[in-house]
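Design request, tokens follow.
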């Protein structure tokens, strides 16, 4: 990346306009994150929200993606998840329904129509998710809050659902504005902003614990005394070093790709010759991105949710208690209730890892169609050296992608499990989990989106400053 070129591009009016649009939309998004949903007793619900975030991985993931929308009971609590879900469903339907596949191949007109269907499909999904969130919060409040009464009238339900659906639609519109008039992918940029918004609060909380000298101060080399908590100092130092190492490997994983050389046959038309050149086809190590992790979290939330419903119907049900216990993320409260680390505490991370690996293979098969790519190469006169066009090329691509997935899926699973690995280490050493608010998945999203946005900024900067080099 050329920083001189980027700084020189700020002289261009269009470049400044695009950057200001992105900055203004992100500021508006952060303001929306603090507008509360009009529910009955906000204080009582916030107590339930705190328990939901601390006790379930789904609650923490929703709060992370919504940029604190769950903590603040914001109108953007639903966030962009309905739009993302609708986009994934449309991708699956495009591969499954021939008519939609033809439409997607019709160029810009077909893609616009599919995008319009995606926006329409996201509205009923937002309604369903709004109902589910309010129901979960209501059920959690009934069982966890000892003070205050919580009652929701039909008017409260209608008002809260309307506000949350409107917030989701507004967020979808803001993301599209960034894509059309700003720089980068709007949906990814909004999610990036959501994750980064959690950093200051986490850092401030750790700093307050660092300078808490009630347990003594740190002595280095026998003569240097620092007014900091010794335990927290070494924890933060270890986490800082670990963060640098993790970021390094995340960048390497995100950029890792297999380069396949494509040869094009030489064709003669009249007195002119075409082709006879070589090109490359890069295949990413993790072609599915973070979608498998999102799928895995969604599937893992179902057993615990069913367990909560069973417990409401019968508080003595062993099945309901086991489902909630087995499929709840590790937390300080759970650790204290169990009296230590139990064997069942490994069920959730183990199932999580298996689901991430399975969904990585599944979603990669959707986004990378070996048969379609092999057919397109054959039509264009392209071939891989030593591999016959057609069926043999298709098998070559499938075999290559499967080998990449074997490493990429396991790497993605380990990244998703990083918070649990760290928590278990601290449980064994300190006796309690430290609780990492930003997961390895969140860091992967930050790295992926940041690198892509930097590429697009650099590309646009080169375009607007092209005349300066002539």
């Amino acid at each position: 990346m050329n920083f001189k070129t980027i700084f020189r591009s700020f002289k261009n009016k269009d470049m400044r306009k695009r950057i200001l649009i992105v900055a203004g939309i992100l500021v508006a998004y952060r303001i929306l994150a603090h507008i509360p949903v009009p529910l009955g007793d906000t204080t009582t619900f916030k107590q339930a929200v705190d328990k939901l975030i601390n006790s379930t991985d789904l609650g923490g993931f929703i709060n992370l993606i919504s940029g604190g929308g769950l903590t603040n009971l914001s109108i953007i609590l639903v966030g962009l998840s309905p739009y993302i879900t609708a986009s994934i469903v449309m991708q699956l339907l495009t591969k499954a329904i021939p008519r939609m596949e033809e439409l997607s191949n019709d160029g810009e007109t077909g893609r616009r129509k599919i995008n319009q269907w995606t926006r329409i499909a996201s509205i009923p999904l937002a309604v369903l998710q709004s109902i589910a969130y309010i129901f979960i919060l209501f059920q959690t409040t009934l069982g966890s809050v000892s003070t205050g009464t919580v009652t929701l009238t039909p008017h409260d339900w209608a008002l809260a659902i309307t506000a949350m659906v409107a917030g989701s639609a507004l967020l979808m519109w803001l993301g599209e504005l960034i894509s059309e008039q700003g720089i980068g992918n709007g949906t990814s940029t909004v999610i990036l902003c959501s994750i980064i918004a959690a950093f200051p609060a986490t850092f401030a909380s750790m700093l307050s614990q660092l300078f808490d000298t009630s347990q003594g101060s740190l002595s280095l080399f026998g003569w240097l005394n620092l007014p900091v908590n010794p335990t927290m100092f070494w924890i933060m130092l270890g986490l800082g070093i670990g963060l640098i190492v993790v970021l390094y490997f995340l960048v390497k994983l995100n950029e890792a790709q297999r380069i396949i050389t494509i040869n094009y046959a030489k064709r003669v038309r009249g007195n002119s010759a075409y082709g006879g050149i070589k090109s490359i086809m890069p295949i990413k190590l993790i072609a599915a991105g973070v979608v498998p992790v999102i799928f895995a979290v969604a599937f893992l939330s179902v057993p615990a949710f069913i367990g909560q419903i069973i417990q409401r119907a019968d508080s003595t049900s062993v099945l309901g208690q086991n489902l909630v216990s087995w499929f709840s993320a590790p937390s300080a409260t759970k650790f204290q209730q169990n009296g230590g680390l139990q064997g069942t505490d490994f069920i959730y991370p183990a199932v999580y890892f298996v689901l991430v690996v399975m969904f990585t293979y599944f979603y990669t098969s959707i986004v990378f169609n070996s048969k379609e790519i092999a057919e397109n190469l054959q039509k264009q006169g392209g071939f891989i050296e030593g591999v016959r066009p057609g069926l043999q090329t298709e098998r070559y691509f499938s075999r290559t992608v499967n080998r990449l997935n074997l490493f990429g899926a396991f790497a993605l699973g380990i990244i998703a499990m990083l918070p649990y690995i760290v928590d278990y280490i601290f449980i064994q050493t300190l006796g309690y989990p430290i609780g990492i608010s930003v997961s390895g998945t969140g860091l992967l999203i930050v790295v992926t989106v940041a690198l892509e946005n930097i590429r697009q900024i650099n590309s646009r900067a080169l375009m607007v400053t092209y005349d300066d080099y002539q």
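Comment from the thread starter after seeing the answer: thanks! The chain is about 70% helix and 5% strand.
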